[in-house]
Amino acid sequence: MKDALQFHFILLLKWIQEYIIDPILNLLLKTTTKKGPQNSESKYANSAQRVKIRTRGAYSVGTFHSLKNFLYTHQSYCHPNVVLKNDRITLQGVDHQFAWFCITEDSIDVNDVTQFPFVWIAQYLMATELIIMPISSFLQLYQEELVRPGNDGQQIIMLFNTTRCGSTLACQMFAKLPNTKSMSEPWPLLIAHSNYVHGDLKGEVYEDIIEACVAFQCKANPDIQRIFYKPPGAAMPVAHIVKKMCPNIKVIFNTRLPKHNVSSLYQIINGPVYESSTSPEIKSIWKRFVALPHPKNMTKALKKYRNEVIAKLDVDKMDLYIGGCFSSYFYWFLQHRDIYDFVLLYDEWMHYPLIETAKLFDSLGIDKKHLSLALEAFDKDSQNKFFGETDGKRVEIISEDEWKRIDEVFQTFGLPLNHDMSVEEYKAVLYQ
Questions:
Q1: C-alpha dihedral (145, 147, 148, 149), degrees to nearest 10
Q2: Among positive and negative, which fits the CA dihedral 149, 205, 145, 230?
Q3: How far apart are CA 111 and CA 226, in angstroms?
Q4: Edge to edge, what strands does the sheet with 70-78 contain?
Q5: pLDDT in tens, 198-248
Q6: CATH code for 149-430?
Q7: 50, 107, 175, 218: which one has the fewest Cβ atoms less than 10 Å from its Cβ?
Q8: CA 423, 376, 154: angle at the middle one, nearest 5?
Q9: Closest C-alpha to 88, from 219, 234, 253, 227
Q10: What are the residue ranges spanned by the domains of the chain?
């Protein structure tokens, strides 16, 4: 409730800024608090805007963050390439109009997984300024000043996943390796895909934006030889686009036995981070966590599921929603199974950490002398209990009737899965 009230207060302040204060200032002084002096931006060289964050608000820290979450005031217009000059300037998101970057204090590294388990939350909480630029400038800057990811000698590894399957632990593990940058859940790829599916981002620029997002997040650094990049689970639909646009990137799929994976997701939804789950605002955000295809590519069964489950999001039928989250992520894996260089199965990884990590390193060409260092990550909670005590083992929280409905959701997505399948049965699907 407190977060919701704060967010509405932010929206009220932004409304006052845009419709009362700025029109008066523009009339009297030819300037505004939000945009600065009239006609001060140019076509490209002066098209990026630097703004000061005055306050921020959201329904939950663990949600989509966009420009509407910040009340800011204009500071200056500058060349877009300013975002390339400092590692404390990081891409937060894109929409059909703008790309925006967060600026933090020099002492704050939002990609430091030892301090922040998730990049998108660190950016929201720690940013002091933003740089906002038109999408056209964002793409032009990429084309003129950056190299296609994976083409500059720097190894880039992307771990797509079904969430709650050890992906954050993998980030912590790679962060232990020398000369390695590990990024845990930057959200630009997810935001871009969500905008595309909802019709706010047109198909003709969609793939270019995906490529550019990866490039800005993986820009070259002479001190970094390897980048390990874990997008959120709902970004699974972009994996094949990333591989198509950047074929030198190594792509991994990380998952977990369906029963344990879905159970852990269920606990998250009912945990402290999303305790306002009944609010319409939170539900509208949740709808974007189910990674459905673009409407033009949906089967009749998926359209029915979207209309009857996702559109309504009845809190009494959260089993159908949670089942859809996992199903949608796995659906995209089956659609593009051939792009993956390695499959990391949590259930075997936890039983045989040394063996499975060694296999992973072999597939990536990483010297196994680093194994002991990497395995130190197993000694702590990778998410620092951000979502509470959600170890994923309390499968009894879902009733048998709910499991039957979840199995039906698997079928809706065309998946050869069931909640009671064994590890060997799951592996047969993964490796067929």
A1: -120
A2: negative
A3: 14
A4: 70-78, 48-56, 129-134, 98-103, 89-94
A5: 888 888 899 999 999 999 999 988 899 999 999 999 999 999 999 999 999
A6: 3.40.50
A7: 107
A8: 90
A9: 219
A10: 2-143, 149-430
